[in-house]
Amino acid sequence: MAPEIPSRDTVQFCPSAQPDWEGSVAIGVMVGTAEEPRMTHFPSPLQVSRELLDLAKPVTAAEVFRFAAPCLTERCVHFRNSQCNLVTQIISVLPTVTEILPACAVRGQCRWWRQEGKAACLRCAQVVTDNYSASPEMTIAATPRV
Known about the structure:
Layout: E1 13-17, E2 25-32, E3 37-47, H1 50-54, H2 61-64, E4 65-70, E5 79-80, E6 83-84, H3 85-93, H4 111-116, H5 118-124, H6 136-142
Antiparallel strand pairs: 1-4, 2-3, 2-4, 5-6
């Protein structure tokens, strides 16, 4: 059974969360290559469990899976002036990787979607939360701005 996601009016989800954040759910798995990673979305969010996390070993779960969780807002290094600056930078630096909106189980609650709309979704699939082989553009996009 898919975990229940809170109402879109009460919580906005970060689609690049860590699995240990409160309320975290798995939304996809990373496929492709280190140079061209792509996320395949799950039809519905998966409950984060020890069994799921163990599937990623020996690397971190956030290298293999994408997680969404309630946005940390001011507790996040990317959040400033009521905005997610990570997605703003992703939009400005990274190319689109699809022409159509992918199916997404959390779009209605997604902070990136609500803030940047389609432009965020067309780039989302290339984002690897724990990316140890990031391209120069991804490194720029992911570097918190002061």
